[in-house]
Design a protein that fits this description.
The protein is mainly beta and 118 residues long. It folds into 2 domains: 44 residues, no CATH class; 62 residues, no CATH class. Strands 1-2 form a two-stranded antiparallel ribbon. Strand 4 and strand 5 form a beta hairpin. The structure holds zinc ion. Zinc ion binds next to loops.
Length: 118
């Protein structure tokens, strides 16, 4: 069992993106992060995807172009913005199409005594 605090983060050594300290595989660059036997023996936690949104857009005109910015924001239960990040920028011209997918992946954290409710 990992002793890492739920929500603890670190930088991926390959791409420097901030990821969960408990991650065995970087969700950004897909590099494996742990090769020690303990990590390999440990069963992979069951990942769930409580949110996934996907959509495709196509540039509708015959001339000109769209410049686009992909922005993801995260709000807490008080409606306060706790994260706002530009994921990508680009341009679309006649016939161009882009598909965007937002997914929230979650893993159950095995609670220690502190997290157990009776
Ligand atoms: Zn990475």
């Amino acid at each position: 069992m990992s002793s890492v605090r739920p929500g603890a983060t670190r930088a991926c050594p390959h791409c420097q993106v901030t990821i969960l300290a408990s991650a065995n595989v970087c969700p950004a660059c897909k590099h494996h992060l742990r090769f020690d036997s303990a990590a390999l023996e440990q069963a992979q936690p069951t990942a769930v995807v409580p949110l996934k949104v996907e959509g495709t857009i196509r540039y509708p005109e015959l001339e000109g172009a769209w410049e686009y910015t992909v922005v993801v924001t995260v709000h807490n239960d008080k409606g306060e913005e706790i994260r706002r990040q530009v994921i990508d920028v680009g341009a679309m011209r006649r016939g161009d199409e882009r598909r965007f997918t937002l997914s929230v992946e979650a893993n159950e954290v095995r609670a220690g005594r502190r997290g157990v409710r009776h």
